[in-house]
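2024-03-11 09:14:02 INFO receiving multi-entity request
2024-03-11 09:14:02 INFO entity count = two
2024-03-11 09:14:03 INFO echoing inputs for audit
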Amino acid sequence: MIRTEELLLNVGPQHPSTHGVFRIIVKLDGEVITDATPVMGYLHRGTEKLAENLNYTQIIPYTDRMDYVSAMTNNYVLCHAVETMMGLQIPERAEFLRLIVMELQRVASHLVWWGTYLLDIGAMSPFLYAFRDREIIINLFNELCGARLTYNYMRVGGVKWDAPDGWIDKVSEFIPYMESKLEEYDRLVSGNEIFLARIKGIGVYDAETAVSYGLSGANLRCTGLNWDLRKTEPYSLYDRFAFDVPVGRTGDCYDRYRIRLEEIRQSLRILRQAVEQFPEGGETMGKVPRVIRPPEGEVYVRIESPRGEIGCHIVSKGKAEPYRLKFRRPSFVNLQILPKLLIGETMTNLITILGGIDIVVGEVDC
Amino acid sequence: MGDLLREPLTWGHALIFAAAAILLMGIVLGFVTYAIYFERKVIGWMQLRVGPNRVGPFGLLQTVADVLKLLLKEDTIPRKADRVLFVLAPVLAFVPAFAVLAVIPYTQSLYFADLNVGVLYYVALSGISTLAIVLGGWASNNKYALLGGMRSAAQMISYEVPLVISIVGTVMLSGSMNLRTIVEAQSGGWFWNWHFLPQFIGFGVFMIAAVSELNRTPFDLPEAESELVAGYHVEYSGFRFAFFMLTEYVYVYAIAALTTVLFLGGWHAPAPFLAVVPGLIWFILKFACIVFFLFWLRATFPRVRVDQLMGFGWKVLLPLAIVNVFVTAGYIELFIKH
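2024-03-11 09:21:47 INFO inference complete, emitting structure
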């Protein structure tokens, strides 16, 4: 007797395209997915619980390890939350340095995404081109704070290290270089028929769905919603700079791809202005008490990380350690739409859609 | 060689044939060794890397070291695998890959078998390798391997049809299925006598279908590493894996040689004044260009999707190949016959 059976396929946690130790259990009917259950937690380290026994400066290295592709923005969201609670004034030079490293980080993060996404689609070379250019940013960071991935650069009240001599010039040299490389990327990849056929019209959702799932970042803007916290709720010095927020129309993987590449361009635009306005001298640390004890109360701040809206909620009882610390991680929230998008798609599109969401498992599991 | 084949078989001749066959196998294995090295170097350079450069001078012994490593590895067969088929599959993949090489003529006199249905022989035997991939995928008892094997079956069957029909045009122009006669039909001194110009549709379809038959980028779906991990050979390791890899590269050799013979004029020089250079050199040059082209593709293209692949095969390539047959027939009827 001939009968058909559904195939239960376990994708991950060891799988080349789940971007780390993420796992999805999919039910396949032929190559068509009928059900998908994401399983997460393989990289859970209990950052939020650990933080309850650490003082605020000690928590900063832990934030590096959440979204390890974009450690600078994680540093910032924690420091920003504590500073908001304590009402601290940040010296302008420190704030400029923070902004420059955050925008460089956004470029680096999108480059990693671009390279690995093309790798998921099956093209190997762009990955190496992206890493060549990211390497320059990593070296800049290395020069600034002595680390290539987990920087531990920002402090409550400022930054740990001032920029060494000539560092700002190197940043300004990088901007035109990266712009020319972006054109190269477009020539190499963005017009490739095979690539376009793979990502156009895949993983479509509308703005209403995106909002109801709490999506943010490029995943939200691809639906046409103009929502970028750097514009809508300016923090740091973003209100001083002119830049555009790219939005999509159709809400598919192609729009997400286009938006992320355009965001690199806009980041370079911000960087160019920031480098020009960079103050000559000044402190890099504000006046901060020796032991950081935010007053009793709660605070929630949110900023725009490369992956979307990263938030930090601190409950303080007036002690040196937080009573409770909670991070709103964009990767975790953005991932929730995945099962909905996967139903009815093929195995190949699973990889395209998952890659398009742009998760970092360190941040999903925290 | 050609004269020897026509003489009656004696013990002396049999010995020469055996020696020649072993020599050819040595050449093919040497080609595979250095094709892998060449591919890694070329792709390395295209990707801003240096490629292998540690084992031996310029890394020339890298593939040798890799093969030794594979030979020394433990021979694992998954417990729930179908043992007989699991062992049989790599052998079944590799035998036809070597068998098809028999009909390739290298020069006027250097060839190993003079079959009147050489094209048919090639197409028929290379089809068997598909079976081996499906068997390997099925016998592994692994879901990824099964998906890879099934994709492979679908892909290779779909692309064999346009491949065969695209050859028909050049067969019609030469009036023979004998590969030597096909090369002879492309003589005339100049490169525009080669079949790739009058048969440009056939040549295009043939190249695309050939890349697909080779399971190489952008058609490497059976082993798509980003979704199926490694596809049909995910459970294979050690020497059995080496056999699958060997098959793949022997087919690169075979397809490059076949393309040279069918469309690029085999051993003929591109211009009469260049005919002083021996035919074998021209053959090797054309052959090397095709091999480079295949490796180049891998550094350039993303992978196509299964449904797009099938759609492209049946809706674009097959009609094009059939149109090519009609156009060629009309051309022969109108211009050549009268």
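2024-03-11 09:21:48 INFO post-check: Chain B touches chain A through 28 residues (CB under 8 Å).
2024-03-11 09:21:48 INFO post-check: Chain B has two domains: 1-72, 77-336.
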